């Protein structure tokens, strides 16, 4: 069911629990509210158009004052989107259909998102046909091509996403693999095994004064550390060691 009426007795089940499997948009409204009467059919149309990908839950604020108070509702219509039991987006006041459509679009994976999530070559190529600058699709496709030995095509794919750390890291990895005067095999084996910290340590050990490979080493290291996240303590320490080795 795409549009449901919710009360205090079933709010936990119908909104909070359900939002762990599908986004739930809650429309806080009242019968006396003119803007609510204008907005509700727009919300219902947007929910119905998404064929179950989003559920619209309608809460009468007069009949369910406890819920309204718990979510700090001070003006209506108030619309809150829930995912995984928490509010992820919201707005207050009547909105035109285009704005409501954008609001719902932000809750539902796009066609390109679904193609990237599929991860196979055909899906990734289709995603890039729709959005040529989609970095995650380009990096994933280039990775598949690289593992298959089709390095030139991988590099061509990556040219469309300049400035992306993962893309730059893969471009530099290919450059290092093609170089005949530096052995990065152990470091790249660690990287392929998911040991970003170990790979970074080995690559930092290859940084040398005035080496022509330092820029490529740096890009591969930065991409590996970026995958660990900015808060990762090991990545922080590795960045400091890299800076000391370079400068």
TrEMBL record:
* GO terms assigned for molecular function: protein-disulfide reductase activity
| Entry keyword set | Disulfide bond, Electron transport, Redox-active center, Transport
GO CC entries? cytoplasm
Record Pfam families: Thioredoxin, TPR_19, TPR_20
Q: Domain Thioredoxin spans what residues? A: 1-109
Q: Name one GO biological process term.
A: response to stress
User: NCBIfam families this protein is in?
Assistant: thioredoxin
Q: What is this protein called?
A: Unannotated protein
Q: Which organism is it from?
A: freshwater metagenome
């Amino acid at each position: 069911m795409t549009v449901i009426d919710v009360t205090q007795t079933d709010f936990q089940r119908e909104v909070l629990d359900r939002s762990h499997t599908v986004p739930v948009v809650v429309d806080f409204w009242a019968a006396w509210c003119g803007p609510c009467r204008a907005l509700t059919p727009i919300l219902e149309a947007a929910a119905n158009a998404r064929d179950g990908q989003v559920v619209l839950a309608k809460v009468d604020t007069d009949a369910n004052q406890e819920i309204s108070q718990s979510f700090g509702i001070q003006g209506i219509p108030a619309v809150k989107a829930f995912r995984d039991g928490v509010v992820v987006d919201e707005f207050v006041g009547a909105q035109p259909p285009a704005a409501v459509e954008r609001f719902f679009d932000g809750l539902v994976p796009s066609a390109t998102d679904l193609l990237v999530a599929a991860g196979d070559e055909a899906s990734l190529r289709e995603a890039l046909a729709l959005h040529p600058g989609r970095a995650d699709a380009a990096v994933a496709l280039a990775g598949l091509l690289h593992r298959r030995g089709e390095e030139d095509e991988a590099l061509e794919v990556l040219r469309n996403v300049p400035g992306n750390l993962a893309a730059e890291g893969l471009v530099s990895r290919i450059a290092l693999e093609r170089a005949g005067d530096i052995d990065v095999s152990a470091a790249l084996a660690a990287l392929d095994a998911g040991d970003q910290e170990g790979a970074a340590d080995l690559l930092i050990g290859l940084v040398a004064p005035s080496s022509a490979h330092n820029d490529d080493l740096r890009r591969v290291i930065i991409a590996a550390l970026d995958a660990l996240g900015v808060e990762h303590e090991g990545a922080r320490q590795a960045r400091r060691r890299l800076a000391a080795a370079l400068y």
